[in-house]
Design a protein that fits this description.
This protein is mainly alpha-helical. It is about 65% helix and about 0% strand. The chain has a domain at about 45-140. It has helices at about 1-10, 10-25, 30-65, 75-90, 100-120, 135-140.
Length: about 150
């Protein structure tokens, strides 16, 4: 029970202690249950981070496309930053590339809500499904052409 108390009371100490046990191959002393939970949590965290970055990126691509007169260096920098961070996430966790299309689809729904809220435009103005291919989304040179809204 010492592991559970230690885990609940001082996460960092618990983490360092279990890391040391692993290095020393003292497997029988490991807090297996909490280690497994933390590993699963790490995987979910990376996936959530990817979703979050894609959502911000797609929202800015939509704003870039649907509000060309409001384009700014700030928007461009946000687009670039999200792409850079997505690249790092996918470099650190290449298996997430296989989930990219699903994450783009999920992120697109969220990005339409964000873009509508930020621009004051109706959600129905934006395409129902993501108008950008995954290659375009991740391409550092891609910025969508303007769409005129009446």
């Amino acid at each position: 029970m010492e592991h559970a108390i230690n885990y609940e009371q001082d996460f960092y100490s618990w983490l360092m202690y279990n890391a040391q046990l692993l290095k020393e191959k003292r497997f029988s002393e490991l807090d297996i249950e909490n280690i497994a939970e933390e590993l699963e949590s790490m995987g979910r965290r990376d996936k959530r981070e990817l979703l979050s970055r894609l959502t911000v990126l797609l929202a800015h691509l939509l704003k870039w496309q649907f509000q060309p007169v409001r384009r700014s260096k700030s928007w461009e920098r946000t687009i670039d930053e999200q792409r850079e961070q997505i690249y790092l996430i996918l470099s650190d966790s290449p298996s997430l590339k296989y989930q990219l299309e699903n994450e783009i689809s999920h992120a697109y729904d969220l990005s339409v809500k964000a873009a509508a809220k930020e621009t004051g435009m109706k959600k129905t103005i934006f395409p129902e499904t993501c108008p950008f291919a995954s290659e375009q989304i991740l391409d550092e040179n891609f910025y969508p052409d303007a769409v005129m809204v009446c």
